[in-house]
Amino acid sequence: MNMRLDKFFTSVGLLSRSETQRAVRAKRIFVNGAAAKKADVKIDPEKDIITLDGEQVLYREFTYIMLNKPKGYISATDDSRLPTVMELLPEKYGKLGLFPCGRLDRDTTGLMLLTDDGELAHFLLSPVSHVPKTYYFECRDELCEISAEKLADGVDIGEKSLTKPAALEYEGKSGRITVSEGRYHQIKRMFEAIGNEITYLERVTFGPLTLDPALARGEWRELTENEIKEIQKHNRNIKEN
Hints:
four-stranded antiparallel sheet
């Protein structure tokens, strides 16, 4: 594939087109060991070696970020009143058009995927995809067997249909619940439907991704190559089925 050098730098979020032009004039950019002469020169980002200030710049068509969302942040790209999850990332990622893949409530913590891969996000979030999501929860009252069975079988949260069956592991007032839907405030409403209340909620898995225990609240990292392959594989399986 071929693209302009300045387009390459904007696509990886490092330089704007005008900044690329200035960097070329300052001989800060090299292509295959030779100083770039023009910002609009055509390159193959998958084959050519591009460096900026001596550091190689790698090209990726899409960016995938795993974030350990803290409380108090909303799942949006911008908001005039409240802090968003995008504010937890360095400025360069704001230039890439990243967005949250799905939403977590303001007071819900845990795993979020941020990406600019719209097609993959669409399939992960589509109701027909049934992507599993696991949450660690704490609730006000101890769960009894009857209440747990209701949650697992599906409950009435005031919509046209019951929630789909959920997988549940619990002990006392805490546990893990796995759902394959993404209804508004779903888990909180499920517990309200059995006369209980969620007091703490953290997402720990999303499809094939598991929250990295090394990430503290508010910390993030790019997905590994294996993790990217897993979500792309998951995406292909959804399409094929």
